[in-house]
Design goal:
The chain has one domain: Purple Acid Phosphatase, chain A, domain 2 (4-Layer Sandwich), CATH 3.60.21. It is of the alpha/beta class. It has 5 helices and 17 strands. The two termini are 19 Å apart. The protein is globular, with a radius of gyration of 17 Å. Strands 8, 9, 10, 11, 12, 13, 14, 15, 16 and 17 form a 10-stranded mixed β-sheet that branches.
């Protein structure tokens, strides 16, 4: 396994990218930060059904704030499922609404709707859209039938993760997965689960030549997916 870095720089469809170990993606030429699947308020939404702590929203916004400060992004694009449910988006406590407003000062916020939050509230700063184009890239939450033709597509939804076999142990982590024309971003949220990058639901969306950017312990590692180190479970 290579040494890993906090950030890896590479091009995707001719656009320079920075893949960050916190599961964010930064486009330096346009000063644009991409994050996907925050699932804010998931802890509150599931607190009756599962013993999830309720501090995931505060930690999620703090993580977002750190990513914005690190990159000094002038535009932040959320690739859907920013909230765990529509209801909890509309009921977001005032303290968190204000934190989002503060983060949006001096920069543009673009909220792409997702399957968990298809009807976002108007208090959110910035634009609310079903999809978006930035630097010639098509950004959406989940690839629809009418979007299958697009090249230079980046989506979320699947929360890709990977399990890797090393000589002495096995480790798991969030993972960017892409081929030459499509990329699926990992979930940025605190309490988000994930789907193995080798799962058929992900594999049917991508071509044969795939690259994974694997996030683990504050570092990110780049691997071709045909490496035998990737485990299905």
């Amino acid at each position: 396994m290579n040494k890993g870095k906090p950030v890896i720089e590479a091009d995707f469809c001719g656009v320079p990218m920075q893949y960050h170990a916190d599961a964010s993606l930064y486009l330096p030429e346009s000063s644009t930060l991409l994050v996907s699947d925050l699932h804010l308020e998931k802890g509150k939404a599931q607190s009756k059904a599962a013993p999830l702590p309720r501090f995931d929203t505060s930690e999620g916004i703090a993580k977002l704030s750190a990513a914005i400060a690190r990159t000094n992004a002038k535009e932040v694009i959320f690739l859907g499922d920013s909230f765990h449910t529509n209801l909890h988006a509309f009921q977001l406590p005032v303290i968190f609404r204000q934190q989002l407003l503060d983060l949006a000062k001096d920069r543009a916020f673009i909220w792409i709707t997702g399957n968990h939050d298809p009807d976002l509230p108007e208090y959110l700063p910035g634009q609310i859209v079903p999809n978006y184009t930035a630097s010639g890239l098509y950004l959406t939450h989940q690839i629809g039938e009418d979007e299958a033709k697009f090249s230079g597509l980046i989506c979320g939804h699947y929360h890709p993760k990977a399990r890797i076999s090393l000589q002495i142990r096995k480790i798991s982590g969030k993972c960017f997965i892409q081929d030459e024309t499509r990329m699926i971003m990992p979930a940025f949220g605190i309490f988000t689960g994930g789907l193995n990058i080798l799962d058929p639901a992900i594999q049917k969306l991508l071509g044969k030549t795939q690259i994974a950017h694997f996030c683990h312990a504050g570092k990110i590692y780049k691997f071709p997916v045909d490496r035998k180190i990737f485990l299905k479970s």
